Amino acid sequence: MPSGSTATVSPTTTTSYIATCTVGTCSATATSTVTVNSLPNLNVVSTVCSPNLQTYTITFSSNGTVTSSAGIVDNNAKTVSNISVGTNVTLTATLNNCTTNVQVTSPNCPCPTVNQPVSGGNVTVCSNVNIPALSVTVGANESANWYNNSGGVLASNTLTYTPTTAGAYFVEAYNLTNNCKSATKVQINLVIKNAPTISPTVKQATCNVTVANNDAKILFTSTNGDKYNIVLGSAFTGTGNYTTATNLNAGGGNKLNIPNPTTAQQYTIRVYNETDTCYSDSTVTLTPKNCVLICEPFKCTDLKVRIN
Question: Which of 280, 134, 156, 292 is nearest to 220 (CA)?
Fold first, then answer.
């Protein structure tokens, strides 16, 4: 090899080379070893979405030290964690000054199916009572959000909601871990009916000389009502309900031919407005009728005596 000459080699493994330089009858040799280091291996084992579906974790295998363009690398656990979903990354393994790169595409982390909540039922109440809470049931590890009919949020993370006005309310379920929501909402309706009014009149039994007739009566007029029951007692008890109640007649009702009581008796009038859940009560008292003979007072007249 002439003086000043160079030789280019590209060994694939570590190789020793001998170079000989000859000038005339003189020659010299030199030995050189080219060390070829193997590239580090780097393989992606898995990409797994996190429970909240917002990030993912890469598990890898490598005999080198790995770095990543995003996320948190743990070379002991062989993981890259906390990578935002939608972010692709480049992993680089380094060993003996040699590197290997691997491109990793973000996985798709879709929401699981979240079923629509199950309604606790539509509610009809009277204007004279407190509005009860509306309710739903949902699946395990789920809660619910409540909306008005314009889509405005009324309440979050609750299975019950107490409205202040009548109307339609809409409820979605969502997963507490990943915030995935049901595709549809359940509608719950609240109806508030006007409470019936009751204007009662009690009439005592009439008399047949000194004997009371069995004709005492309770009369009443009402607005906003359509059926009624009247029961003995200071409170409404028994099995009476809207279905078995009596229809109002011309805005009123009655209980007739009541026996004359020996002591004061209370009766409770219940008037319904189209449902068992909307009614008003009124308690009245029927007092005994005391029938006595009332004589005209004696009248004195002039006594005239005639003597023949």
Answer: 280
CATH fold, domain 118-193, is Immunoglobulin-like (2.60.40)
State the burial class of residue 141 (Cβ atoms within 10 Å of its Cβ: 0-12, 13-18, 19+).
Answer: exposed
Q: What is the pLDDT of residues 62-80, one digit of tens each?
A: 999 999 999 999 999 999 9
Global pTM? 0.68
Q: Identify the band that residue 195 occupies on the pLDDT scale cut at 50, 70 and 90.
A: very high
Q: What angle (nearest 5°) sits at the alpha carbon of residue 96, between those of residues 87 and 66?
A: 20
**What are the pLDDT digits (tens) for 83-124?**
999 999 999 999 999 999 999 999 999 999 999 999 999 999
Buried b (16+ CB within 10 A) or exposed e, 87-104: eebebbbebeeeebebeb
- Domain segments of the chain as ranges: 1-36, 42-104, 118-193, 197-286
Tokens 């000389």 -> residue: 209
- Decide if 60 contacts 119 (C-beta within 8 A): no
Q: How far is CA 266 from each of CA 120, 227, 231, 263, 271, rounded to the nearest angstrom? A: 38, 20, 9, 10, 17
Predicted confidence at residue 5, as pLDDT, reads 64
> How distant, in Å, are the alpha carbons of 164, 165, 167, 272 from that of 192?
10, 8, 9, 13
Question: Which of 284, 288, 230 is CA-nearest to residue 261?
Answer: 288
Task: Give residues with Cβ within 8 angstroms of 85, minimum separation 6.
Answer: 49, 53, 54, 55, 56, 106, 107, 108, 109
So what's the architecture of 197-286 in CATH?
Answer: Sandwich (2.60)
Roughly how many angstroms between the first and final C-alpha of the chain, as a whole number?
201
Rounded distance, CA 135 to CA 118, Å? Answer: 9
Yes or no: say if 117 and 138 are a contact pair by the CB < 8 Å rule.
Answer: yes
**pLDDT reported for residue 239:** 87
Judge if 118-193 and 197-286 fold alike in CATH terms: yes
